[in-house]
Amino acid sequence: MANIVSFDRVSKGYAALPLLTDVSLGLDEADRIGVVGLNGAGKSTLLRLLTKLEEPDSGRVTHRRDLRVATLPQSLDLAPTATVRDVVLGTAWLPSGFAAEHEWAGDAGVRTVLSGLGMAHIGLDAPVGPMSGGERRRIGLAALLVRAADLLVLDEPTNHLDVAGIDWLADHLRTRRGALMVVTHDRWFLDAVCERMWEVADGTVRAFEGGFAAWTLARAERVRIEAATEARRQNLLRKEIAWLRRGPPARTSKPRFRIDAANALIDDVPEPRDTVSLRRLATARLGRDVYELREASVSVGTRSLLDKVDWIVGPGDRIGLVGANGAGKSTLLALLAGTRAPDSGEVRRGSTVRPAFLSQELHELPGHLRVLQAVEEVATRVKLGDKELSPSQLAEVFGFTEKRLWTPVSDLSGGERRRLQMLRLLATEPNVLLLDEPTNDLDTDTLASLEDLLDSWPGTMIVASHDRYLVERVCDVVYGMFGDGRLVHLPGGIDEYLARSGAPVVGTPASPASVAAPAGSAAGSLSAAELRAAKKELVRLERAVAKLEQRETQLHEQLATHATDYEKVAALDAELRAVRQERDETEERWLTLADEVGSA
Asked: Which residues are in the ABC transporter domain (predicted)?
């Protein structure tokens, strides 16, 4: 593959803050790269350098001659008088080298793009001035997708898209020719679209093969190697201290050094949450009744968002809400939060319910305070599950370092303000969380910290989000809203929602935790009887894997208990190797069978 962009010892910084130092890398003509990193690490700076919107402080960025680069920035500057036709088919805001598109009526590709982005109802002559920011952004994205480009650079393309729109965009980009670079917090999207990852951190850019999941495993491996190196250094220190202690007796007891096994980071990882214990805690805090909707109805103009909906939410329920923009997800959360009343019917709330509602707005943050003061204004001690945290400790979980604690709220970026908003909500110690698009503007590391925190949080949680990764990670059940007034339980999760809404399901790698053939799929190489037998075998293999993983955990515990009994350790180690081999073989059979079932 030919190289189209090269970085040669590129450095860039602002004031006294260096972001990139001596970065050298290349982009090939068929690369599909996802860019990840903490907020403020330099992701957007990397994109601006790559597209030559900014020049480096030192080094050189080289483009192939006549390279056509199409860029979707986070904010679009569109003329208020411009129409959809001007933006999508014209060249008003596109860089040089892109021609206007014509023959709208005969160009099925253009119509397909607008329809896939949820804008089939918008006419070409509609002015963009009165439109919302989300609609303007989707129109700008459509203008890029209808044209051929050698390099497509997208900064948060999934913002303002619903689950079906994100699924369509992923499928479109997978079949699109040319190089792609994308910055997004949507981890499912990264896995579905990207074949390589660039991590921006510590002034450099590290390249990894594979999507988000592969990058996560590679980063864990890097940390493991670093831990092993540190363990060796500690061992040398122990020998040095032992030699020193052969002299005069020390006044303190001999220090103990705990050196973990090299694979401690990835072995013996428990389940994300103990659902039974959390439900028991939630019942104790909430009682039996949380929410009950009785024939609740809400309309906006002539549209019915909720039509005589009956729904019961219990203690400890973890519910994901999915649906198109405007289907009524935010309205439903507002009903539960008590900020809106139903047009008819009723919403009953338990007497012990103490909700916290995370809206999509940021105006409620106190701009005159500093970060730590904004948290202390809400609470001085925070108890989340079995953890008790100080405001500064909670802020650290959400990525606010010691230096950032004294930053004025008014100086925070959009992502940092969103983090602070979530932080203040959790500091009130609610027992019900109502979260409306909680992942907006958050980086992947902050999302991982948030999910880890929510895993140990006892209480009821209802999340309205287009972030498929988040919904599948923290929610136990999924409900769909289809814009027709219904609230539908979806046992098959988001795949079932996409099948019911008529959207194509973009496949992602199967895992032992979830196997589902797309609803309504036709039989392939397997007959109906063979398919049923295969699904039963999948369940059996999944249980076998779970039992083998449980046995591994027990063996690790026994190895720790009998660490000084060499014969016992040798026997346990031999059994552990056998169990691991059996688990690997079982997982391999499971994956092979899952592929057959998924393609049936």
From this structure: 5-227, 291-510
CA dihedral 465, 466, 470, 473 (to 10 degrees): 100
Domain boundaries, the chain: 3-215, 224-269, 275-500, 528-599
Q: How many residues does the chain have?
A: 600
The rounded radius of gyration (Å) of the Cα atoms in the chain is 27
Burial of 157 (0-12, 13-18, 19+ CB in 10 A): buried
For residues 96 and 98, give the distance between their C-alpha atoms in angstroms, rounded to a whole number: 6
pLDDT in tens, 231-259: 766 665 555 555 444 444 443 333 332 22
Which residue type, as a one-letter code, is found at position 427?
A
CB contact burial 290-311 (16+ within 10 A = b; e otherwise): bbbbeebbbbeeeebbbbebeb
Residue appearing with tokens 């997978």: 174
User: Edge-to-edge strands of the sheet including 151-155?
Assistant: 69-72, 151-155, 179-183, 32-36, 196-201, 204-209
Residues of the chain with pLDDT under 50: 103-106, 243-269, 504-505, 507-524
Architecture of domain 3-215 in this structure: 3-Layer(aba) Sandwich (3.40)
What type of residue sits at position 380? Answer: T
| CA 68 – CA 95 distance, rounded (Å) | 9
Q: Are strands 318-323 and 460-464 parallel, antiparallel or unpaired?
A: parallel
In CATH, what is the architecture of 275-500? 3-Layer(aba) Sandwich (3.40)
Q: Do domains 3-215 and 275-500 have the same CATH topology?
A: yes
End-to-end C-alpha distance for the chain, whole angstroms: 35
* pLDDT per position as a tens digit, 399-443: 787 778 888 888 777 777 878 888 888 888 888 999 988 887 777
Backbone CA torsion sign across 407, 408, 409, 413: negative
- Nearest Cα to 73, choosing from 185, 173, 183? 183
Pairing relation of β-strands 32-36 and 151-155? unpaired
Cβ neighbours around 544 below 10 Å, total? 16
How many angstroms separate the CA atoms of 11 and 5, rounded? 16
Query: How far is 133 from 144, CA to CA, in rounded Å?
Result: 17
3-state secondary structure of 247: coil
d(CA 185, CA 192): 13
What is the C-alpha separation between 294 and 315, in angstroms, rounded? 18
Q: What is the DSSP letter of 253?
A: P
Strand 291-300 relative to strand 303-313, pairing: antiparallel
DSSP assigned state of 263: T
> What is the rounded distance in angstroms from the CA atom of residue 117 to the CA atom of residue 52?
28
- 3-state SS assignment for residue 137: helix
